[in-house]
Design brief:
This protein has about 200 residues and is mainly alpha-helical. Helices cover about 50% and strands about 10% of the residues. Strands 1-2-3 form a 3-stranded antiparallel beta sheet, with helices on one face. The chain is globular, with a radius of gyration of 23 Å.
Length: about 200
């Protein structure tokens, strides 16, 4: 399926999204914010990104021209970031080392062992290592410093949504007099057709 430009429901931002099948049979998922807010420019960016990923798959990757440290520095200085971002990236840089951007993927497992507690789950690895490294690498790829990063992202199990049965909701409301006004107006109780004990 070719990459396409969609509008994110939560932010309204133009986002390049889709899945591409590589010659190895592996399917990679792409989802990143477009650089432009103009839809036509964003669609050109999506075509260019798709072409680059497929060309790298067929012809092999070009050697990266910069180091990971240079990419981290440029990424943190490009736009204002939260106060935690430079700290996290500095920890990653210490764990990965100042290697060439082409060698970063080979160092991710070592960074996992250095930065996370033993037995940490896939979600922790993704949040602490994969997501920030991928952000820096994508920034570098847009500047032609390296190829577009294609990491094997660990699958995280979906969480379960817990629901109250109407009888359980009534018991909670009855047992919490100080919260009754709040609990009786929450949408989930109204949709569950729970009658307020105050009515």
């Amino acid at each position: 399926m070719p990459l396409r430009v969609v509008i994110r429901k939560d932010t309204g931002a133009l986002t390049i999204s889709g899945r591409l099948k590589l010659t190895s049979g592996e399917t990679i998922r792409v989802r990143e914010r477009a650089q432009s807010n103009d839809r036509r420019v964003a669609e050109e960016e999506a075509k260019s990104l798709e072409l680059k990923i497929l060309r790298d798959d067929w012809l092999g990757k070009r050697p990266a021209s910069r180091s990971f440290a240079e990419a981290v520095k440029a990424y943190t200085e490009a736009t204002p970031r939260s106060n935690d971002t430079p700290k996290r990236l500095h920890r990653l840089l210490n764990a990965i080392g100042d290697v060439n951007l082409a060698d970063v993927e080979d160092k991710l497992n070592g960074a996992r062992e250095t930065m996370l507690r033993p037995g940490a789950g896939a979600a922790a690895w993704k949040r602490a290592v994969i997501v920030p490294v991928r952000a820096v690498m994508r920034y570098a790829a847009r500047r032609k410093w390296c190829d577009y990063p294609v990491f094997d992202v660990p699958q995280t199990p979906e969480g379960r949504t817990r629901y109250c049965l109407p009888e359980q909701a009534e018991q909670i409301i009855a047992a919490s007099p100080h919260l009754q006004p709040l609990l009786t107006v929450l949408p989930m109780y109204r949709h569950a057709d729970v009658r307020s004990p105050l009515s």
